[in-house]
């Protein structure tokens, strides 16, 4: 059922937001020379997939989780992208092809061994990762792997259509408690 909702909403989002994405692509090209950011992430059943976002950090940024990178690296344009959540729009294509869901645990880097271990122990890696989830709404980032894995596990056990839409609406309206300056991803040269 949730996969059908994912497909429907991702197609609708891609169609309706394609003019916005085109403008962001052009603006990102001018700002960074490479408007899209691609990175390998750990997905369902620990299979790797390529996550795509609009770039918000310079190409020279080291390949580390964002909580380990100075926030001074984020340009004003990148900061605006993150604050508005527009950097996430290309992930609609990841949802469309089935490597992600709109709602689920945020996909981590291959190098985040503790988080992978804690998630595996709690069966979190048996579900598709998401663009948003309970951890993001509550501002828990990947710098706290055990706490994150516990919240992810709670969400995975409780996920139904009502919680799915509640988390989506909280994300879109910004009504969650998350701090958008504390990010779980890093953008580096690919």
List the helices and strands and how they pair.
Blueprint: H1 2-32, E1 36-42, E2 48-54, H2 76-84, H3 91-97, E3 101-103, H4 113-121, E4 130-132, H5 134-137, H6 145-158, H7 161-173
Parallel strand pairs: 3-4
Antiparallel strand pairs: 1-2
Helix pairs in contact: 1-3, 4-6
Task: Please describe what this structure looks like.
- Helix 1 runs antiparallel to helix 3 (91-97).
- The protein has helices at residues 2-32, 76-84, 91-97, 113-121, 134-137, 145-158, 161-173; strands at 36-42, 48-54, 101-103, 130-132.
- With 190 residues, it is mainly alpha-helical.
- The protein has one domain (2-173).
- The strands form 2 sheets. A two-stranded antiparallel ribbon has the order 1-2. Strands 3-4 form a two-stranded parallel ribbon.
- Strand 1 and strand 2 form a beta hairpin.
- Residues 178-190 have low confidence and may be disordered.
- Helices cover 46% and strands 11% of the residues.
- The chain is globular, with a radius of gyration of 15 Å.
- The chain contains 7 helices and 4 strands.
């Amino acid at each position: 059922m949730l996969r059908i909702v994912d497909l429907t909403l991702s197609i609708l989002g891609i169609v309706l937001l394609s003019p916005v994405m085109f403008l962001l692509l052009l603006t990102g090209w001018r700002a960074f020379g490479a408007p899209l950011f691609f990175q390998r992430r750990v997905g369902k059943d620990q299979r790797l997939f390529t996550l795509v976002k609009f770039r918000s950090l310079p190409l020279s940024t080291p390949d580390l989780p964002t909580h380990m990178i100075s926030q001074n690296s984020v340009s004003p344009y990148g900061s605006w992208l993150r604050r508005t959540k527009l950097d996430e729009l290309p992930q609609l294509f990841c949802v469309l092809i089935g490597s992600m869901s709109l709602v689920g645990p945020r996909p981590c880097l291959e190098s985040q061994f503790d988080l992978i271990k804690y998630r595996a122990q709690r069966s979190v890696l048996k579900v598709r990762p998401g663009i948003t989830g309970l951890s993001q709404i509550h501002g828990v980032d990947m710098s706290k792997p055990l706490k994150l894995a516990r919240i992810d596990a709670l969400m995975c056990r409780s996920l139904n259509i009502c919680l799915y839409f509640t988390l989506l609406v909280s994300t879109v309206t910004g009504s969650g408690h998350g701090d958008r300056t504390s990010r779980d991803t890093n953008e580096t040269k690919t």
